[in-house]
Amino acid sequence: MSALPIRIKGQARRSLTAAEILEITRAREKSLSRLLILYVTTGLAFMLLPGTFLGVWNLLAISSHRAASSVSAGWVQAHGHAQIFGWIGTFILGIGFYSIPKLRRLNPFALRAAWTCWTLWAAGITVRWLTGVYQWHWRVMLPVSAALELIAFLIFFSSVSGHRPQESGKESLERWVLVVITASVGLLATLLVNLGACVYLSARGSSPDMPAAFDQRFLVLETWGFLVPFVWGFSAKWLPVFLGLRPIRERWLLSALAVNSLGVLIALTGSILFAAIALSGGILISTWALRLLEPTQQAAKTKGGHQSFPIFIRLACFWGIIAALLGIWASFVPDSHGIWGASRHALTVGFLATMVFSIGQRILPAFSGMRLLFSTKLMFLSLLLLAIGCFLRVSSEIVAYQGCGT
Ligand code: HEM
Q1: Which of 53, 79, 217 for a ligand 1 pocket mutation test, highest count of atoms within 8 Å of Cβ?
Q2: Atom 13 of ligand 1, residue of closest alpha carbon
Q3: What is the per-residue DSSP string for 85-132?
Q4: Distance CA 122, CA 142 (A)
Q5: Biggest alpha carbon distance in the chain?
Q6: CB 47 near ligand 1, within 6 Å
Q7: Measured CA angle at 349 (ends 333, 246), to 5 deg
Q8: Does ligand 1 have an atom closer than 6 angstroms to the CB of 355?
């Protein structure tokens, strides 16, 4: 290995020996793994207490009063925000930072940006949750939380946008990267709208809760406009290898993305039926593009995870389609709170959480310092319980909330 001319902080520019470069690279890899573990544990912490615990609490209140309106909108929104931004959003930022080649180079600034981003992001989400649940100084804290989240994301965005095509040795951007960039734009739009809404509420609102009509549209933006494209991007990158799929139909994937984005824009205008039709079209096209339901060309690579995980990935895909179709049904039914709730959880628990549980348990141990999964049986159990819970939730929410069970 040839000597590399480099400037180390506080020292004159000098050439490093091969052994020094190896040593620095090892230390760098360790810091990156530590960083990823921090993001992942933070995400899991948000998922467990502010997310799932509050979700279960809300559900117990709803079932004991037999009324969906018996829990405060603030608590429901605090649960949704913790799950979507606190859990999945934190995972995405962590994996994004871990995957940037720039962080693997010897530039201490890039690593510092990742730590700063974590601090602001975690602070923003914590403040938002406390504001939603306790309403403490909410006129100040609500916009502050949204601003912290936005600044954290801008730091992430400026780090990731340094990822140039030549770094991966290719002439043009790979298609999955384009999909992830679109998802990042969706996240940016979500955080901007969130900040605007929080500033508005702080100046004119009577509580920190988003009004129901606005919240419905905002939920489409944050789920279909940001999370779904992220899952498609990561699926295009990992699933052909893990599941032994035939090469994905890249142009169709970009078409799915375009139709999905159109659906999100239509939803923002308030035309829910047309939006639901476009979102259903997008998810059907993406399934065709990813070739998830077609015969594979190779055996799935299940080593490192439970052998059943390809089945759960396909189940997730099925829940995504169900979520979109329930959206079409809900837009025909007046007062369709239960069908919307079922559609939302088919998407968030059935599609997104199943994908995160499957792909996450497959890749994260290796990323966190080449570890092995603690137990493949527990992986199977977690996916099985998630699938059963999702089925019970989606089916019973329609029956219970739409008044069919009384
Ligand atoms: C144990 C699991 C969960 C339980 C018990 C639960 C419970 C609830 C309840 C009771 C509501 C109120 C509205 C309704 O009943 O439909 C709700 C809304 C919501 N949940 Fe969940 N949930 C769970 C998991 C998740 C997950 C994993 C996500 C996302 C990744 C999520 C995202 C949301 C969102 C976005 C809302 C709507 C918030 C709003 O109206 O602004 N939930 N959940």
Answers
A1: 79
A2: 341
A3: IIIIIHHHHHHHHHH-HHHHTT-HHHHHHHHHHHHHHHHHHHHHHHHH
A4: 14
A5: 78
A6: no
A7: 105
A8: no
CA dist., res. 163 & res. 52, Å (int):
35
Question: 10 Å Cβ neighbour count for 294?
Answer: 11
Distance CA 167, CA 74 (A): 45
d(CA 70, ligand 1 centre) in Å? 15
- List phi, psi (to 5°) of 88: -70, -40
Q: Which residues pair with 5 in a beta bridge?
A: 15
Q: What is the pLDDT along the chain (406 residues), one digit of tens a residue?
A: 445 555 555 555 567 777 877 777 777 778 888 899 999 999 999 999 999 999 999 999 988 887 777 789 999 999 999 999 999 999 999 998 887 765 556 566 678 899 999 999 999 999 999 999 999 999 999 999 999 999 999 999 988 776 555 544 555 668 888 999 999 999 999 999 999 999 999 999 999 999 999 999 999 999 999 999 999 999 998 899 999 999 999 999 999 999 999 999 999 999 999 999 999 999 999 999 999 999 999 999 888 888 999 999 999 999 999 999 999 999 999 888 899 999 999 999 999 999 999 998 888 887 777 678 889 999 999 999 999 999 999 999 998 876 665 5
Q: Is the CB of 81 under 6 A from ligand 1?
A: no
Beta bridge partners of 15: 5
Between 175-204 and 212-222, two packed helices, what is the crossing angle to 10 degrees? 160
Nearest CA to ligand 1 atom 23: 55
Residue 338 CB neighbour total at 10 angstroms: 20
How far apart (Å, rounded) are the C-alpha atoms in residues 98 and 296?
30
Kind plus residue range of the DSSP H or E element containing 142: helix 138-160
Return the residue whose CA atom lies nearest to atom 32 of ligand 1: 80
Residue 229 carries which side chain, given as an amino acid letter?
Answer: P
The one-letter amino acid code at 225 reads G
Distances (CA, A) of 309 to 306, 314, 331, 383: 6, 9, 34, 8
Distance 288 CA to ligand 1 centre (A): 29
